[in-house]
Each structure stands twice: as C-alpha cells, then as structure tokens.
# Entry
Amino acid sequence: MKLFRKKEVWLPTWQGFISAFLLIGILGYGAVSNLYPFLAQNDPVINAGIIIIEGWLDDTPLQEAVKAIQPGQIVVTTGGPVQFGGSLIKEKTYADVTAARLRLLGIADEKILCAPAPDMQCDRTYASALAARDALKQRGLLGKSCNIYSMGAHSRRSFYLYKQAFGVDYSLGIISLESQEADLRHWWRSSLAFKHVLSELVSWIYTLFSSCKYA
# Structure
C-alpha cells in the first residue's frame, strides 16, 4: 500500500518571478489610473432638448453646466430634501436650491423645471430620476432627448439609474463635470479623491447587483 506518490512541480525561475511581478504591477497601475475615467462617464446626446442637473453640484461645475445651456433648452433641477441647514434657507430641497442658483446665474425662470424628490434613506439618485421623469411628463416634455449633468465618479451610476427610470431605449446622455476640490485624475494621491472614487466604485457595484429593484 502506497501512502505517498511522487509528483513533478514546475516553479518559476527568479527571472519568471520578476516578470510576473512587473506584469502585475503594470496591470494594477492601468486599472488604478483608468478607474476614475471609467466611473466619470461622458456620453452626451447631441442637440438634447432637455438638461437635467443634479442639485448637489458644486458652484463651479454648475457654472460650467450653465455655459453649455443653449437657447430653447429646458433645465430640470433634481434632488431631495436638504440634509442640513434647512432652517436657515427657504428652499427645502436640493432641486429648489439649484433652481434658485440658476436664477442667480441668469437663467430665466420659465426655462427652469424644478423636480424635487421625496425624502429617502437609500436609492436617492433613482428617486431623483423618477421625479425628473414625472415632472417632464406633467409638462408634456417626456420623450425629448436629455443630457444629465453629474459630477465626477458619480456619473456612471447616475446614468445607469436614470436609464432604469426613463427606459433603456430613451434618448439620454451623461456629462461628467470635474470637481475643483481634488485632482480626481490622480485620485490615489489625496484622501478626499480616494474616498470619492472608491465609495462610488462600491456604490456602483452595489447598484448593479441590486438592479432587480429597478426593473
């Protein structure tokens, strides 16, 4: 009776170890450096009739969005209840706050469609997408092509959830605006950018695995 058997095992040489280490390093660096561009999706619709602006955008990205508004376009502002400081301002949702900011930036009131979302503990972006869809439907504008203005690594998740709310065949585009607070292109160099990109990566993966809720 044999209790052991002889087996030949191939092991890499020291040159093989170095080559494998270098290959893993190159692939890892490529994945890290391309993670933010992947999440910060840009896929706009040409000559869209509607602009949808997520109400939590910082002032500088919002100003960039305003510069892109064309004559005849309707601007939809989205967002749920303001999370803090609500007792200090009359606007109670991010949609209302951003509508007021747009007026200060010179956008005529008749071009602004405010679409506040309900208070949600989760799925806030999806709730905002539904609110935008319903607001457009009430105004008889549902069916017109739209570009969504989001920011940074949140953009891919926003685009996915708006597609779920509007329908995968709806003419929707996404434009990702850059934050001025951190260098997101080199997100691993600062704690703020690191947190933004990794948290959005986790949130995007979670959204994909919970997509049955949005069917």
